[in-house]
Amino acid sequence: MIRLCIYAALLVVFADMLRKAVMVRADSFLLPLLALCIWLAVLVVRRWRHLYRRLTRNRTGFIRPRGGFPAQRKRDIR
Q1: For the chain, what are the domain ranges?
Q2: 5-38 per-position pLDDT tens digit
Q3: What is the pTM of this model?
């Protein structure tokens, strides 16, 4: 969770830098900042999907089998 927050904060910072570079037409900074923002966005999405999958996987601890449970024997056969 901490890593996701760090990635998101870095994405906000560098996206703001990219916005300001576009406004002042600093063309030499655009491509590296754009690449960095895309890379950070990919990291945020991958980390969010990982955490979401880990949090929702535990809800399905028991699934009832289709067609009901198999019949049980009356007494043990030895």
Answers
A1: 2-56
A2: 999 999 999 999 999 999 999 999 999 999 999 9
A3: 0.69
